[in-house]
Amino acid sequence: MEKFKAFLKRKNIVFSARRYGIDALGAMAQGLFCSLLIGTIIKTLGQQLALQPLIDIGQYASDMAGPAMAVAIGYALKADPMVLFSLAGVGYAANVEGGAGGPLAVLLIAIVAAEMGKLVSKETKIDILVTPAVTVLVGVALAKLIAPPIGSAADAFGQLIMRATELQPFWMGMAVSVLVGVALTLPISSAAICAAIGLTGLAGGAAVAGCCAQMVGFAVMSFRENRWGGLVSQGIGTSMLQMPNIIKNPRIWLPSILTSAITGPLSTCLFHLEMNGAPVSAGMGTCGLVGQIGVWTGWLAPSEKAIANGAQAIVPAAMDWAGLVLISFVLPAVLTWLFGLALRRLGWIKDGDLTLS
Q: pTM higher than 0.70 for the full model?
């Protein structure tokens, strides 16, 4: 046993919640942003400006979400170069096989593949063959075996959201806003879920509200710890960056969740905010302002999916614009800051709990 422990130490394999639940998870969030999220932003910009090169660039970046996440995870696990490079194919397979649950599948599978690759790395004279072979074979085999069930679970989560849209607007708005907002921050793709179930209309608007509550909420609530860099990285980047901190102190998630439970019903019942652009935009929130652009384009030229669901082009009135601004920016900032302040005074949130690594 002592020899095995020494071997693991030499291979820098550490079985800990911090290594897998914080380091790997945080790196995966960065990989997701540098591929799917930034790609969607660039593609949306290209569509609005009618620039095909930008559309193509955005699509290329989005297609590399799986490899980017897997390589980021391997980097966080301090994988050797041969292991790290081999994880690109593993990430691609896990993301494709995982469907809407691709990011979650990549997280679990890339961790196992990386650690297995590290075990054999530099242990043979034919390392250039053994290390990538073990990493790729283990990773892709797991992708075929467990990624589809993970994807099915994510699809079931999407169906839960779809059923919530059939409820009365108040409860539907609350359910969709909270659930999609939570999905945005978890290591699953809220954008992919929204795209998979074709979330448009009032439900799409509630999804935008929930995502904005998470992103703007965390950005404002953590301003004292992360200043302007954190405001930008979370406010127009992703609230998934806070997942390592949420694991350490789940109470920091309460302010943004409570906010989404308020802004969702306001979106559906008061402002009647509809997201009739591309369904993927419903799960993007303020990331590159893609959610807001989706609402705007949905007003002027609804997507095919939205038209199939009965949407029609409109000329936005002052109430429409007021709803978009309040739901996307003002209310998430004010409400989450107030809830966060209350929890700080209760001692549930302490200075440093929201600091990004």
A: yes
